[in-house]
Design goal:
The structure is a homodimer of 193-residue chains.
Chain A lengths: L6 H10 L4 E2 H12 L7 H13 L3 E3 L13 E4 L1 H12 L6 E3 L1 H8 L5 H31 L7 H41 L1
Chain A binds a DNA duplex (30 and 30 nucleotides) through helix 2 and helix 3.
Protein name (chains A, B): PadR family transcriptional regulator
Pfam family, one (chains A, B): PadR
Organism (chains A, B): Paenibacillus auburnensis
Chain lengths: 193, 193
DNA sequence: AATAATTTGTATCTAAAAGATATATTTAGA
DNA sequence: TCTAAATATATCTTTTAGATACAAATTATT
């Protein structure tokens, strides 16, 4: 037990702890609910489902076996799987992983490329506004029908994190667009003289 | 030219565009200045330095050749390298990469594990406060001696992003600690009855 | 009803990145 | 002089991201 595992395995165990799911459904849930702080690919999920099954931490669910000719394979968590999940929850949190290419480009840019950076920041602004709105819907939905998830309080705390991030993104975008515009007009004045 | 490259190559080109550096120095600068939104490992940097050299985008600097017996190899950017960097700056920004294990744990936790989560959030709070303070020093330093970097305005915009993130982290930590404490006292009241 | 397009579902492959480790040199301090 | 820490280059393994292939099932269109 407790052999160091990749993170994908805990995503699977965590989700199966709530309900039986297929690999595809796991991918969908991660994309829909966790994508603002976590992502998984099929290339991680499917091999891991097999490994966890062979290790006895999850099992193919006989209850949800393919009715008629559905090819979907649903998995359920086992007791050892639950223990593994609980142990991981208690283990120290690993440092977050962050990569913002936009900041890398901004860092390496100069006054001359302010117009390009302006476009980049505008795109950043609108794409995150869209993402924020999508999650606000989810949040509103969650607040209406309480107790659908046993852990709805925890989910709300996670969503609050997202909310604060998007607010920070919005404020930074506004501020940075202003600064870049200043750069551009300053540049134009230079060439005019 | 413009063959799709891994991001490490642009970090190298971007930094060498300012000054000649060795692999080790590149790693240090990334750790010291970019680490709050970007990271690189030696395992990425050294092979990439060789590849970029063989492609002619960078070159071993003869100017900074080892005086006496220093084994350090410094690299300089070439004209094709500068072009490659400029092209990348103009290319669309890729979506940021984010992985917060703490949010994953919180999402999969329940009321029973509030005490564990409380410890996790406390650790999160203090480690980011420390990081924020380190970068505030860098920012103050940068604001004093302007024009050491030609792109100091851009660097300040990047640092402002960090600042807003750390403020969001702090606010979320406070809020979440309060909520988790409520959970714990509610649990205790339950078991008392 | 036939066809086309989309969604659901499982699976694998490659390239990129993280993290760990090995090793040697140089510098600073006890 | 010996030791510890910092500098420096290098490689190896595991993990992850992203792309792609393919087939069945569902939905939409004509």
């Amino acid at each position: 037990m407790s052999s160091k595992k990749n993170k994908t395995s805990y995503v699977i165990l965590g989700l199966l702890n709530e309900e039986n799911l297929s690999g595809y459904e796991i991918k969908r849930i991660v994309d829909d609910r966790l994508s603002f702080f976590w992502n998984e690919s099929f290339g991680q999920i499917y091999p891991e489902l097999k490994r966890l099954t062979s290790e006895g931490l999850i099992a193919v669910s006989s209850a949800d076996r393919p009715v008629y000719s559905k090819q979907s394979i649903k998995y359920e968590i086992t007791e050892p799987g639950r223990l593994e999940l609980q142990e991981w929850l208690k283990s120290p949190v690993e440092k977050e992983l962050i990569r913002f290419e936009i900041l890398l480009k901004l860092y390496f840019s100069n006054a001359n490329s302010s117009d390009t950076m302006l476009e980049h920041v505008k795109e950043f602004q609108t794409s995150h506004l869209r993402q924020q709105q999508l999650f606000q819907q989810f949040e509103a939905q969650l607040k209406q029908n309480i107790d659908v998830h046993s852990n709805h309080r925890q989910i709300l705390m996670v969503l609050s994190f997202g909310q604060k991030m998007w607010e920070a993104y919005a404020a930074w975008s506004e501020e940075t667009l202003r600064l870049l515009e200043q750069n551009i007009t300053a540049q134009e004045d230079d060439t005019d003289e």
